[in-house]
């Protein structure tokens, strides 16, 4: 469904944010894309969506090549970016109507589709309030409604629960799961909340410094890491930390430091 081959992004300043990434997301997956801050997740999502141009490699979505600033896949996908501006002077309902029209929803369907997505995200009762007066959680819900208003088959959600309270996080997770189960929407999601990811995703990838460290079905990874981590029930958090934690301050650094600088060791 989504296939990235050798995907690479070197920014103009020479920094390689994504390095030869190969990914495959299958139909029906809720695919968690994980990594520490600066790992290259947002950069990857933007390349998968055709919003920035890869320096190398290619992306296909449902077999169609994603080209930079080309709308060829825009009807198939919905995107909730990491940070996005809302039109604060519009009501939620006006905002969704605008995007339904922009995304080419059939004119006769616009009104009913807007009502449907308002119900989906639990905002029907607040649809006539100005977005500028919404809380962060309400804005995220309207953002998700905008992402699905044109009935895309794949949605990309870049940290959709960032800054939400525990109830807000749960609500968004349940919207995502229902979209996947009831509407067959394939989901590509980034989040730093590993518990959230392990609850909703069937497949995950872990990246660091632009490189893919691990990828696979979560239940299989957990089985596979039992031996590696010498732990009968490793969690996603255990796997994540075992792969992404630097040795700084760990035994190896202290030892090497001792070797070079007698009497000092760096422990953060
Ligand atoms: N326009 C740019 N020019 C140069 N470097 C950039 C640019 N945009 C991002 N980067 C760098 O690329 C790296 C990856 O950034 P990216 O935003 O993709 O990370 P991320 O995994 O989404 O991080 P976070 O978890 O904090 O959202 C970072 O080191 C960042 O500073
Ligand atoms: Mg990011």
TrEMBL record:
PROSITE patterns in alphabetical order: ABC_TRANSPORTER_2
UniProt keyword list: ATP-binding, Nucleotide-binding, Transport
Family of this protein: Belongs to the ABC transporter superfamily.
Organism of derivation: Rummeliibacillus stabekisii
Residue span(s) of domain ABC transporter: 2-234
Signal peptide positions (record): none
GO molecular function, one term: ATP hydrolysis activity
InterPro entries hit by this protein: AAA+_ATPase (IPR003593), ABC_transporter-like_ATP-bd (IPR003439), P-loop_NTPase (IPR027417)
UniProt xrefs under Pfam families: ABC_tran
The protein's name in its UniProt record: ABC transporter domain-containing protein
């Amino acid at each position: 469904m989504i296939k990235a081959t050798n995907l690479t992004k070197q920014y103009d300043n020479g920094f390689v944010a994504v390095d030869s990434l190969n990914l495959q997301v299958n139909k029906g997956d809720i695919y968690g894309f994980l990594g520490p801050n600066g790992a290259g997740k947002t950069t990857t999502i933007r390349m998968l969506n055709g919003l920035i141009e890869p320096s190398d490699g290619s992306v296909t979505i449902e077999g169609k090549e994603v080209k930079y600033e080309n709308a060829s896949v825009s009807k198939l996908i919905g995107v909730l970016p990491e940070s996005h501006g809302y039109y604060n002077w519009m009501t939620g309902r006006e905002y969704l109507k605008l995007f339904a029209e922009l995304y080419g929803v059939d004119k006769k369907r616009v009104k009913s589709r807007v009502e449907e997505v308002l119900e989906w995200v639990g905002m029907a009762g607040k649809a006539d309030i100005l977005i500028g007066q919404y809380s962060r959680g309400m804005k995220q819900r309207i953002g998700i409604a905008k992402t699905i208003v044109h009935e895309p088959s794949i949605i990309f959600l870049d940290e959709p629960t960032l800054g939400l309270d525990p109830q807000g996080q749960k609500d968004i997770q349940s919207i995502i799961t229902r979209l996947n189960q009831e509407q067959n929407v394939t989901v590509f999601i980034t989040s730093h909340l590993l518990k959230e990811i392990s609850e909703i995703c069937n497949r995950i990838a872990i990246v660091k410094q632009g490189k893919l460290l691990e990828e696979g079905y979560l239940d299989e990874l957990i089985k596979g890491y039992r031996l590696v981590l010498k732990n009968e029930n490793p969690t996603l958090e255990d796997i994540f930390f075992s792969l992404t934690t630097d040795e700084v301050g760990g035994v190896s650094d202290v030892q090497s430091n001792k070797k070079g600088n007698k009497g000092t060791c760096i422990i953060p």
